[in-house]
Amino acid sequence: MSRTIYSVDRVRDIYHSFAEIVGVGHKWLNTPTDKLDVVPGLVLSNERKNFVFDDKWETGYGFLESYTHNFNPYVSLEERVLARTIFNDESFYAYDAYVGFTGMLSKTLGIKVGFTYNFDNSAPDRAYFVPGVNAVFYPSNKGVLTFTTGFQYKFSTPP
Prior knowledge:
Blueprint: E1 2-9, E2 14-23, E3 26-30, E4 34-48, E5 58-72, E6 75-86, E7 93-104, E8 109-120, E9 128-130, E10 135-137, E11 142-153
Antiparallel strand pairs: 1-2, 2-4, 3-4, 4-5, 5-6, 6-7, 7-8, 8-11, 9-10
């Protein structure tokens, strides 16, 4: 199994973030209503976010979990988690999680509503020192919760 993630986030100074996880996992559930995949694997990443490993291809390891529940043919719940780190320095890690609903408005058009949570502790070179308190603040060493909405279009092939 393979999963590709690409993101850009100007608010958090992420100019690009590419991560590909490839692994061998197991389908714990594979029914018409429930699907659960658990995949440990290797991660290939390239990011630019004012970090010591900027624009370098890095390898690491990670874990992907993905669950989908179809309430009926028109409404589904999706949940997934990706945790990853790099081999060069395992003290830096990132978590990406998503939970959301998809509701179909027609056979091909649907609406998606969900929450994405990202945690990334990989910005030690962007530390801000709080004067007089002896504290260090890392701007990306925090979780970010994002509310997302959008449309989904299902392409189908003729029988």
